[in-house]
Amino acid sequence: MPQPTTRMVVDRALLRAKAEPDTLTRKTDDVSAYLQKVKTKGACFSFGTPGLDAAYGGLRPAEIMSIVAPEGSGKTSLLLRGLSTFFENTDGKLLHCNMDMTREGFTERRLAIEIGCYPRDVPNEAASNSERYQKAVAVLKAQEERIAVLHGPRTLEQMERDILENAPNLVSIDYLSAIAGDFKGDYDLVRAA
Predict the structure, then answer these.
(1) Cβ contacts of residue 193 below 8 Å, gap of 6+?
(2) Farthest-apart Cα atoms in the chain, separation
(3) 3-state SS, residue 9
(4) Which residues contact residue 7 at a Cβ distance below 8 angstroms, ignoring those fewer than 6 apart?
(5) Which of 174, 172, 151 is nearest to 163 (CA)?
(6) Residue 83 pLDDT > 70
(7) Is the pTM of this model over 0.85?
(8) Phi, psi (degrees; rounded to nearest 5) at 118
(9) Where are the alpha helices (DSSP H) in the chain?
């Protein structure tokens, strides 16, 4: 049976959106002020996989990346691997929005990445209190203050407020339907975002 193909779409042209000049100038000024506030320079996200990172060139401030693939193909695992390298290589803050995963579920998935096991095996690791489990818990505990997790659908306006309030260096949205609104498809939603 063929494996599902994961297709990554990085559309740097989204930043050159067609808009009224005044609106575009205001948004550009907002982004510049925001970047100054969070003091982000250079690439701020990588997957920690040299071939993949080389293929897309790194995510830089104010850029948007969409990963589009079938359900169950590993998009969230890929994101979590990238978040792991983000926390290892920066002192940045994360704002994470998810539709169906609670903060506890998000932590369990991150523990699985840190331990190097499947999420279903995390309870066994916890029960055995293995050395690698203890190490993973310590890593996540050290990152705790750097993460804000939002649950459920949010409008773009709510997301904008959340971003301004939290001043994260990175925003991750674990699937686009976490943004509420009337959009014709995922690409319309990405363009609106």
Answers:
(1) 64, 156, 159, 173, 179
(2) 60
(3) strand
(4) 68, 69
(5) 172
(6) yes
(7) no
(8) -80, 150
(9) 21-38, 50-56, 75-89, 103-115, 122-128, 131-143, 156-166, 186-192
